[in-house]
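User: Sequence for Thioredoxin domain-containing protein below. Tokens please.
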Amino acid sequence: MQSPHMTDVTQHNFREVLERSASTPILFYFWAPMSEESAQMIPALQQLTQQYEGAFQLAQLNCQEEQAIAGQFGIQALPTIALFINGQPVDGLGGPQPIAAIQAMLDRHLPSQDERTLQHALMLVQNQQHAEALPLLLSLSEEWKRKGDAKLALADCFLATQQFDAAKVELSAIPMEYQDGYYKSLMAKLELHEQAADSPEIQALETAFAQNGRDAKVAVELATQYHQVQRDEEALELLWSFLKRDLNTLDGDMKKIFMDILNALGQGNSIASRYRRQLYSLLY
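Assistant: Structure tokens for Thioredoxin domain-containing protein:
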């Protein structure tokens, strides 16, 4: 099955493919079976197209079968590569080329990998797919993570995945020009969480635990309250301070609550992953 990012050009679809360059850059590849070097490059070029994930489309034209179109382009060497953007040729290469040279040509005209990743992540955030967007945003280079729209998207994803401390860090460093309605809505979500996360019940339990830091029952009650208001890292750290000394604390009830919180956070949560590894290091 051919990738949606690749097309074989014929006299029937040539105009349509060329017009498509108004919205998506088209990389025309002129080759022929009689030119072994041009045929050998096709798999590597197709692999490169897949790596760019839709940043351009590869249009392969067999000059042996489509001599009229090749003539319109004035093809004199095989292979020949021509990059079209907005219906116009903007760059090209003639003769056999290393893939690195083709990539360098593309990078002169196409968005960078970070830019493409950010645009994809922003689309996912817009569609409320925060869990899918978060790893993409975290994969950005430090330079791109510092951009205002990336920081807002990261904060949004952290709030949606209940990583409130991380969201607070991002929101505290949003450039002034990005402090718009979107920013204010994220700040409001964070403030609501912080108000709910410091209830009188939690304050009373914190006082009781401060007076007797060895009381495992109070620790369990406090950790449970923390979990209910999404203060999960504090909940897990509190329980772990007992479990690392005795996994059977409170006849195993504490370990069960610890595991319940880990399971509630899910496999993709970085905090849960860290404490799960610590637990496994004791068990095995």
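DSSP finds 16 helices and five strands in the chain.
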